[in-house]
Design brief:
Blueprint (H helix, E strand, L loop, with lengths): L2 H18 L10 H11 L6 H6 L13 H14 L3 H26 L8 H11 L5 H4 L5 H23 L2 H15 L8 H13 L3 H26 L7 H8 L3 H16 L9 H22 L2 H18 L16 H18 L4 H40 L5 E4 L4 E3 L5 E4 L5 H4 L11 E3 L9 H6 L4 E6 L2 E4 L8 E7 L4 E3 L5 E5 L7 E7 L4 E6 L4 E2 L2 E5 L2 H11 L4 E8 L5 E5 L2 E5 L2
Parallel strand pairs: 1-4, 1-5, 7-15, 8-16
Antiparallel strand pairs: 2-3, 5-6, 7-9, 9-13, 10-11, 10-14, 12-13, 14-15, 14-16
């Protein structure tokens, strides 16, 4: 690489370190604890055949197939253990690599138009400092996104080289990188559509020549989808919510989501919901405006570049049903941000050529300010998780301990999730490699006051701690207890088969408007609203949620789960409960 070509990568490295450098020692949060603990105990290379033929972590809650990215993360775990600096630095450097790949892609897109070093660097810089990226870059549990994106972007860059130079080696490399992307991150399935758009919009090749290049990618995708069908019983999927939206789309809702996403991709403000006028204005300026301009000017080359960037953006959002993201799940827009940065640069380059650098700087300044705040929130989240963990280590009593009202996320002033704290990982954070000794702390749903009495009455001598106003406080039982229900089954400590056994409680007369099953497992606490028809003849019978129980046992080994039934009156106050009981899964 010549000295001139080395400058942009160095600029990108400097920009990323300028924003993320202060977060390199950010403590772990949430799923970080769970995944590092589990994969440290079960290194993925111990059974590579299982990695390639079974669902991710062998759990069914999410339909992931990620052997490649999991193997890479497992290597990080073997190297770095319970020290966050190594993970954060590695993922920041992968993010730099991804920004460099965006620079390469844009540079090749415009290479026919002479020397323009500004547009590729501007697009790559905008991608590098996109405000929602901390969720992918410094939340190590998002490893699949950051690794999958590297293979995805690398495959596109290799395919461009194949088209530019006719190199079959580059074409083969592109296929291999596509396979690695599919084995890292489900959203990589859209790549064949992106390179087909590249061939038809940028290369403008004859149909037969274009098909010869990208049709094998669709063949690989077809085999991948058939494999998913065999593995999961469905071809499309990751998170069930997005799969259902894609399989049974509501067109109006999807269009509304897409319009909102277009606005928030460019202006990721979350102080309040964007107005219809703001969304319409953004769509007009960034979508309709360029179309009308190029239609009048007939500047076909610029229009094709811009249209390709939008094909890239829409393809990257498609696996998530075009739903708007928030900083707490900003990884869903990691690839879409690359398309948005390209589209914005191509638009201002084609319409306001002389002012293009100024517009790019203004947009970059807005994103930079937002990124500083988002990185700060992730640092705060890490410190909060560490404070909770250290507090629990100090107050451990030697008896069973339960924790409630711990923060799932650092939230904005209007309760928008920004950074994960302890959505998961309470139990894991108090076990090696994060602590020397293992401490049994069960997470509870967010409960308070009388809602916690079933725990203390069911486990006398146990300790319940609440996280309140930045401090741990031991729960002190309030006044008289509500009506207590008799547990009919399963008995305390029983072995339970969720396919046959039920939670059964005798319900005496009272002002009971609704009922809930409350569950505490090592993976998390959960609350399930029960159908009023669950009460028949004064007996409430509730199914035990098999999926979460099986998942907990898979990730933590067979152990005790806890449950109780809670009733509330019409005003929402607790009107009765059963004592908490423990059980194990049979078999």
């Amino acid at each position: 690489m010549s000295a001139r070509k080395a400058v942009p990568p160095l600029v990108l490295l400097g920009a990323v370190l300028a924003f993320y450098g202060r977060a390199l020692d950010r403590p772990f949060t949430s799923e970080d604890f769970l995944l590092i603990r589990f994969l440290g105990e079960h290194p993925p290379w111990r059974d590579l055949a299982a990695q390639l033929t079974r669902p991710w972590l062998e759990i069914s809650v999410v339909k992931f197939f990620r052997p490649v990215s999991t193997l890479l993360y497992g290597i990080e775990i073997a190297l770095f253990g319970g020290r966050p600096l190594g993970y954060n630095l590695a993922h920041v450097l992968v993010h730099v690599l991804n920004a460099v790949l965006v620079w390469i892609i844009v540079r090749r897109l415009i290479q026919e138009e002479g020397e323009d070093e500004v547009t590729p660097l501007a697009a790559a810089l905008l991608f590098a400092i996109y405000p929602l990226h901390p969720n992918a870059v410094i939340f190590s549990a998002s490893f699949a996104t950051i690794f999958g994106a590297a293979f995805f972007l690398g495959s596109i860059a290799a395919y461009q080289r194949f088209r530019d130079r006719g190199s079959l080696a580059a074409w083969g490399l592109s296929i291999v990188l596509f396979l690695l992307a599919l084995g890292s991150y489900e959203a990589a399935a859209v790549l064949p559509g992106v390179i087909a758009a590249y061939d038809h919009l940028i290369g403008r090749r004859r149909l037969g020549q274009a098909l010869a290049g990208y049709l094998p990618f669709f063949g690989v995708l077809g085999l991948y989808l058939l494999f998913r069908r065999w593995l999961f019983g469905v071809t499309i999927g990751g998170y069930d919510e997005y799969s259902e939206r894609l399989l049974a789309p509501q067109i109006r809702r999807m269009v509304e989501d897409l319009a909102t996403s277009v606005y928030q991709l460019h202006f990721p403000f979350y102080g309040r919901a964007p107005s219809v006028w703001a969304i319409a204005a953004t769509c007009t300026v960034f979508v309709a405006g360029p179309v009308l301009f190029w239609f009048r000017r007939k500047d076909e080359r610029q229009a094709r570049l811009w249209l390709f960037a939008w094909c890239f953006t829409l393809a990257a959002m498609a696996p998530f049903a075009f739903r708007p993201s928030v900083p707490g799940n900003g990884r869903y827009w990691y690839l879409a941000a690359a398309g948005t940065a390209m589209a914005a640069c191509f638009a201002v380059r084609g319409i306001l050529r002389n002012l293009a650098p100024v517009v790019a700087v203004l947009l970059g300044a807005v994103w930079a300010v937002l990124l500083i705040g988002c990185v700060g929130a992730y640092i705060q989240a890490g410190r909060t998780a560490r404070t909770i963990r250290d507090g629990l280590l100090r107050v451990q009593t030697g008896t069973e301990t339960f924790l409630t009202r711990y923060p799932y996320f650092v939230e904005s002033a209007v309760q928008v999730p920004v950074a994960q704290v302890y959505h998961y990982g309470v139990w894991d954070s108090l076990h090696p490699p994060f602590t020397r000794e293992s401490v049994s702390v069960y997470p509870l749903p967010p409960l308070a006051g009388r809602e916690l009495l079933p725990v203390l009455l069911g486990r006398p001598g146990s300790a319940v701690y609440e996280w309140e106003a930045g401090k741990l406080r031991r729960f002190v039982p309030p006044g008289p207890a509500p009506l207590e229900f008799q547990v009919l089954g399963p008995g305390d400590g029983a072995a339970v088969d969720p396919d046959r056994d039920f939670a059964e409680v005798a319900i005496p007369p009272g002002d009971h408007a609704r009922f809930r099953l409350v569950l505490s497992t090592r993976i998390n606490g959960a609350v399930f609203d029960l159908d009023p028809a669950a009460v028949q003849g004064g007996i409430l019978r509730a199914d035990l949620p098999d999926e979460i129980l099986q998942t907990s046992d898979r990730l933590y080994g067979r152990g005790v789960h806890y449950w109780w039934i809670e009733a509330r009156d019409a005003s929402g106050r607790v009107s009765g409960f059963s004592r908490m009981r423990g059980f194990r899964l049979a078999g």
